[in-house]
User: Fold these one by one.
Assistant:
Number 1:
Amino acid sequence: MNSEELILVTGATGFLGVQLVRELLERHPEARLALLVRDRVGQSGQERANSFIPSVERARVQVFPGDVSLSECGLDAETYRRLQTETTRVVHSAATVRFDHSLDEARRINVEGTRHILDFAAGSRLLRSFAYVGTAYVAGERSGLVREDELAVGQTYRNTYEQTKAEAEALVRSRLGSMPGVILRPSIIVGDSRTGVTSSFKMMYWPLKIYARRLWRTVPGYPDAVLDIVPVDFVASAVDRLLFDEAALGSTVHLCAGPDGSATIDQIAHRAMEYFNGPEPRYVDPRFFFAVLRPLLFISLWGRKRRVLRDGRAYRDYFTMRMQFDTSNAGRLLKPAGIAPPPVLDYLDRLFHYCVASEWGRKPVSAS
Ligand SMILES: NC(=O)c1ccc[n+]([C@@H]2O[C@H](COP(=O)([O-])OP(=O)(O)OC[C@H]3O[C@@H](n4cnc5c(N)ncnc54)[C@H](OP(=O)(O)O)[C@@H]3O)[C@@H](O)[C@H]2O)c1
């Protein structure tokens, strides 16, 4: 590492971004970081960044209030050119991860936002690598083994998130011929494998929470459906490693547990049953559940259970997946550096423990 490195990070305030910024600061003590952060009502981008950047590191982190969906990321022309001239590496992690955005809204952030960052990087003469954080779920509704070099193979998508992340990845691929870069595809990111700490209680956490609170135990899915999850500490160190690895340039890398490390819904459900001392989960064919049972329950249930039915719709497809992610490139590039995702069942209890200790994100604690 030399002191000329300036790493631009988008999405730094996000679940992955915060961990990634900490990793970059720790691993590259000479590097400078530029964070593109949106202002919020009543809180500047700088104030937001200060909440997670240790004060001793602030001198080498510069915050740029901006928005990837805007032309030139909302930066003024002079700042944009100056940053472009000095940037050596880019990690583009900013995205909307909501499943319920309209296609236009999701495209504005995920596709046009990516285009704006690619345009920025294309004008950076010192650029050594552009790391794009995609998602393994660009595979959409495929089943079977998904390879890292595959993108559009005629699959359909469950939501506008998957679709627009696939469109954005296609855009990145079209530029990688003329730009050094790497595409990184995490599966479902969960808390830290060593401490269980997470700032995000979406995805896997929501069904767990309603189960742990005895609000629901019917799974509209298949016990052998595959859940590929990866801890945020693994993803952050893999992104850092691959951002600095010349051998990775031009590759697409699944940051996933893969066929050997992932778990089935039933394995996870049983682990949750033991941990939360809950009832045996009940499986219902999802087609029957959504066509017949759910409409009936919606009429007869009220209050919290009805809200569970309503909110649970967003997660419906994640109980039915029979897709596995091949991790050949990840193994080739990361294993020699000692970076590999731990098997899901090895750290699940630590995730549960943090959920309980933090009251599902309501109480700030650090896991022991
Ligand atoms: N979480 C997962 O399970 C998962 C799995 C696979 C892939 N990924 C990918 O990993 C990346 C990070 O995800 P995450 O879980 O960290 O998401 P997150 O917690 O929702 O963070 C998203 C980040 O993007 C920023 N952002 C959104 N729209 C923006 C805009 N228009 N301009 C500038 N910044 C904007 C957000 O800024 P604000 O704080 O201002 O909103 C935030 O920093 C995404 O690309 C996602 O597709 C995530």
Number 2:
Amino acid sequence: MANSSKNDVEGDVETNFGFRRVPKSEHAGLVSSVFESVADRYDVMNDLMSGGLHRLWKQALIDWINPQPGMRLIDVAGGTGDVTFRFLENLDNSSDDNTAHQATICDPNNAMLKVAQTRALDKGFVRGIEFVEAPAEELPLENRSADVCTISFGLRNVTDRVAGLAEMHRILDFGGRFFCLEFSPAVAPILEPLYETYSNRVLPWLGEHVAGDREAYEYLVESIRRFPEPGALITEMEAAGFSKIQHRTMSGGIVAIHSGWRL
Ligand SMILES: C[S@@+](CC[C@H](N)C(=O)[O-])C[C@H]1O[C@@H](n2cnc3c(N)ncnc32)[C@H](O)[C@@H]1O
């Protein structure tokens, strides 16, 4: 690895990739290779690793969003589409308002997006859904084009969080709402020993023997530890322009949902 003074001279500062320090310019490529390698097994691994809990966490996010007819959703780091599909499945179709909804799954990883496209077809979602290949830091989307912007288990992977949060604020309409569902490093002390063992031993083992990629799952564990605690994330959201920020934790602090408005 190049030393930091050399990096400074070249204007290529370092950042964290899990517990490693890497040149910032290499971070997105390294993250991309993680998801490229796990895309096909991503959904199975999610169930296995979380014991199915990720489904409850995502449903809690959707319940908080309370999807309504006509809502425009942009799901950043949308991956294989879980949050978007739940959003569409939970749209309240009971009212007479037939305004068409619009859902956009945005992700920089082509392999993840391809899985999302196949799943969308399998689920019969053809109209009102689109797929955009782009990172959170540079969303090729119009200003104020969403009522709801979600990022689920994605913000941890974003190389430049300041730019990513600013972009997600920009694409929200006035009165629109941002939601971030993410693992949190602030786990309840009583759970810590168990959580540490699970993170350090079980997850990498599952990564190696089930997903065939130990490194990818070590990256997962390490990136969670590096992610800001709820208070720090609130400060970053405020700096990006979000208002009336709230957060809820679940499963003893293992995950948190942060929400903020664009006013
Ligand atoms: C753990 S998956 C989450 C997928 C999905 N949102 C879910 O909850 O199941 C993380 C996703 O973040 C994407 N990602 C990585 N770097 C990103 C970036 N800079 N901007 C947006 N998404 C990114 C990856 O390609 C991957 O699909």
